[in-house]
Design a protein that fits this description.
Elements (H helix, E strand, L loop, with lengths): L5 E3 L5 E3 L5 E7 L6 E2 L18 E4 L3 E10 L16 E8 L4 E6 L14 E11 L5 E9 L3
Parallel strand pairs: 1-10
Antiparallel strand pairs: 2-3, 3-4, 3-5, 6-7, 6-9, 7-8, 9-10
Pfam family, one: zf-ChsH2
Protein name: Benzoylsuccinyl-CoA thiolase
InterPro entries: ChsH2_C, ChsH2_Znr, NA-bd_OB-fold, Thioester_dehydratase-like
Amino acid sequence: MSAAATQPAIDGWFATDDSGAAHLIGAKCPQCGTYVFPPRANNCPNPACTSDVLEPVELSRRGTVWSYTENRYPPPAPYPAPDPFEPFAIAAVELAAEGLIVLAKVAEGTLAADLKVGMELELALEPLYTDDDGVQRLTYVWKKVTA
């Protein structure tokens, strides 16, 4: 599939490097160093900080499972769901360097029984749905570290 046939499901939340490795795009306060995800341009979330500027920053590609669960039913409209629906795991992954916990679907084929708190996961991309124009929309997922 050509690169033109795939696009992010949400623009500006992730990117890939020259090798194709995915990373999340967050934001960081230049005044106090607080990170946020999803990215935004202003309103530092640190209550002790008065900065109204946040700068885009690449977030860690790997983190550890903080918590997880399994989604056993399809999401309601207008959210896309495969037919037939297959259960999938969701993990809250701690990015220690940034002090963030990022929630995302876990890669296809990995269920809650395959996860444990503290295990290392890394970011990857998977198709979420195909839009009305035939463009495959990608989302970020957490996957088990293979090597």
